Write a sequence for this structure.
C-alpha cells in the first residue's frame, strides 16, 4: 500500500533522514520506534509532503513525493500530528465536520459521526463544547476521529499516547485495533514499547535517521542488542 524507497529528508541544510526504506501493507499496524530525535516525526512529515525530500514515496503504485499535503490526504492518507492541531474555537462536532471527506459522492464513507461517538463516548457528551477546553486525552480522541472522518485507507499517527492517563491510553489502543479490524492500515509512531509490541504486526526501529530494525514484535523482543542500543535509556 505504502512504500518508502531511499528517502532523504532535509530542514534547510540539516540532513535528517538518510535513505529510509520500508513498507506498510493494507490493514496492518506498523510501529515506528526510536528515541527522540531519531527521525520518526520527520518520516511522518516526509510522507505527508511537509518537508523537503528525495527518493520515492509510493502509494498504491504511484509516486506521491512532491505532491501537496492536501493532495496526499485526498488520496487516502490521514495524519494525526503530535501536537494534534485541533481548532480550539470550534466545537467537537464542528471539528469532525471539517474532517469529513468532501467527495462523498464517490461512495458511502466508512466512518460516520455516530461511529466516532461510539468509539469515544466522551466526545458525544462534549460534542457542543469548544475543543480548546477539552482535556489532553479528549483532544487526542478528537484529532484521531477528525482524521477518520476523511475516510483514510492509512493513518499516520504521531505519539498518540504521550502524556495521557492509562485509561485513555487503553482507549486509544483499542481504537487502533478497531481500525485494523476495519481494514485501515496504521503507521504508529510511539514511545511506549509495551503498547507498540502488543498491538503491532510489524515493528520498525529508527536511529540517527535510518531504519536499524524491521521485523516482528517477537523478533524485537528477542533482540536485546537492538533494544539496548536504540531504544533503552
Amino acid at each position: 500500500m505504502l512504500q518508502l524507497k531511499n528517502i532523504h529528508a532535509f530542514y534547510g541544510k540539516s540532513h535528517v533522514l538518510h535513505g529510509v526504506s520500508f513498507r506498510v501493507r493494507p490493514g496492518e499496524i506498523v510501529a515506528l520506534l526510536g528515541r527522540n530525535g531519531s527521525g520518526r516525526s520527520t518520516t511522518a512529515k516526509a510522507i505527508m509532503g511537509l518537508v523537503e525530500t528525495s527518493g520515492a514515496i509510493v502509494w498504491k503504485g504511484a509516486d506521491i513525493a512532491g505532491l501537496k499535503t492536501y493532495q496526499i490526504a485526498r488520496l487516502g492518507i490521514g495524519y494525526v500530528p503530535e501536537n494534534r492541531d485541533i481548532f480550539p474555537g470550534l466545537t467537537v462536532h464542528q471539528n469532525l465536520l471539517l474532517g469529513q471527506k468532501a467527495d462523498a459522492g464517490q461512495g458511502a464513507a466508512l466512518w460516520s459521526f455516530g461511529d466516532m461517538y461510539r468509539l469515544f463516548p466522551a466526545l458525544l457528551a462534549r460534542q457542543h463544547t469548544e475543543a480548546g477546553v477539552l482535556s489532553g486525552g479528549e483532544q487526542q480522541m478528537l484529532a484521531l476521529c477528525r482524521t477518520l472522518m476523511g475516510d483514510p485507507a492509512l493513518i499516520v499517527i504521531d505519539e498518540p499516547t504521550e502524556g495521557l492517563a492509562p485509561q485513555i491510553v487503553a482507549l486509544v489502543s483499542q481504537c487502533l485495533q478497531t481500525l485494523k479490524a476495519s481494514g485501515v492500515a496504521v503507521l504508529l509512531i510511539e514511545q511506549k514499547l509495551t503498547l507498540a509490541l502488543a498491538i503491532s504486526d510489524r515493528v520498525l526501529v529508527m536511529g540517527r535517521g535510518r531504519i536499524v530494525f524491521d521485523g516482528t514484535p517477537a523478533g524485537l523482543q528477542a533482540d536485546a542488542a537492538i533494544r539496548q542500543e536504540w531504544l533503552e535509556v
User: Anything to note?
Assistant: The longest strand covers residues 14-24. Residues 2-230 form a domain with the Rossmann fold fold (CATH 3.40.50.300). Strands lie at 2-11, 14-24, 29-33, 52-59, 62-63, 77-80, 154-158, 185-189, 202-207, 210-215.
